[in-house]
Design a protein that fits this description.
Immunoglobulin-like; five-stranded mixed sheet; rod-shaped; 339 residues; mainly beta; 13% helix; 3 domains; disordered N terminus; five-stranded antiparallel sheet
């Protein structure tokens, strides 16, 4: 019964208030932005003359009000209420309608802290893989006015906002941005900053809180292996589990299966190039890892092949000079100069 009564009262107030008349009350300032816990004040000029003989006033949940003629002043020593607004009104003579104006008040709180991390990852980051940067903002209000920017060094990568979160009280919020690691990312610093943009009535410049930097350690993906012909190759698929896991290798070509955790080739050849698939299994399930091996050929010239190459090249040079001499003799030119 009590809750129904409250709803009825609120709906009656809304019906009796006219917010669209030309001679409605005017607030100064027209919008108020206050840091949580700071003092605040505003005045309402109720009307010019039409309301002198009518009821008028200001509805407020906190603070003090003072009436001087048709001007109502409001102030509070420390504003700590979230989602507050003031309504100034006067009654239209001989009717039950009131002319009303509302002063929107934004109570804000800059973030207590801003931190950045790599979501669900520790250790080195591998070239070609995607990772998610996560920026966590602690205890900020109103969050819909917050924008978070991710940076790579001094270069902005992208901006995230929470337009749809209308919570006026302080909240914790997380923002993410996906990056792809390249060779140039080794030693690069990533960071994020949170900016509370509250419009021209808010603090200038807007409050900004930055995270600490995280430094990436980029490495080549160990699953992609470039090796020179003749070198030793070792592929390690060791795992820990309970029950202890078993291993099954699938090799390129028609090579036989192996059951060891580590596969070694003492001297690789081009025939060893391809995909090596290691399956690790126990009663809880199976995990598969694929290694891609690329063998770089090593080309060697024997002494006999080098000799034949030099002989053929000298023969060509001799033949070419003889052609030049023949052409010169035909033109009766007797002197030749080689540079």
């Amino acid at each position: 019964m009590f809750s129904r009564f409250i709803v009825l009262v609120v709906s009656l107030v809304s019906l009796l208030c006219d917010f669209y008349v030309s001679n409605k009350p005017a607030f100064t300032p027209s919008r108020l932005v206050v840091k949580h816990g700071d003092p605040a004040s505003a005045t309402c000029s109720v009307c010019q003359s039409a309301c002198k003989n009518t009821n008028f006033g200001l509805e407020n949940s906190v603070g003090n009000r003072t009436i001087n003629g048709t001007t109502v002043s409001w102030d509070v020593d420390s504003l700590t209420e979230w989602g507050i607004e003031l309504m100034c009104f006067y009654s239209v003579k001989d009717t039950e309608v009131q002319c009303c104006s509302i002063l929107p008040i934004t109570v804000y709180r800059p973030p207590d802290s801003v931190s950045i991390s790599i979501n669900n990852h520790t250790g080195p980051m591998f070239e070609g893989r995607q990772y998610t940067l996560q920026c966590e903002v602690q205890n900020v209000a109103p969050v819909k006015n917050l924008s978070v920017t991710f940076y790579r060094g001094t270069t902005p990568l992208g901006q995230q906002q929470s337009f749809n979160n209308n919570n006026t009280k302080p909240v914790d919020e997380q923002y993410t941005f996906t990056i792809t690691i390249s060779k140039e990312d080794d030693g690069v610093q990533y960071w994020c900053e949170a900016e509370l943009e509250l419009g021209p009535e808010g603090p200038q410049p807007p409050p900004v809180v930055k995270s600490e930097n995280i430094t990436t350690t980029g490495e080549s993906d160990p699953r992609f292996i470039n090796i020179t012909e003749g070198e030793q190759l070792g592929l390690d698929c060791s795992a820990v589990g309970n029950p202890s896991p078993s291993y099954t290798w699938t090799f390129p070509g028609n090579q036989p299966f192996r059951k060891d955790s580590i596969h070694t080739i003492s001297s690789v050849t081009p025939a060893d190039e391809g995909k090596y698939i290691c399956s690790v299994s126990n009663s809880m399930g199976t995990v598969t890892v694929t290694f891609h091996v690329f063998v770089q050929r090593e080309f060697k010239l024997s002494s006999s092949s080098i000799y034949h190459s030099v002989v053929h090249r000298q023969e060509f040079v001799n033949w070419y000079i003889s052609i030049l001499l023949s052409n010169l003799q035909n033109r009766n030119i007797r002197q030749i100069c080689f540079l």
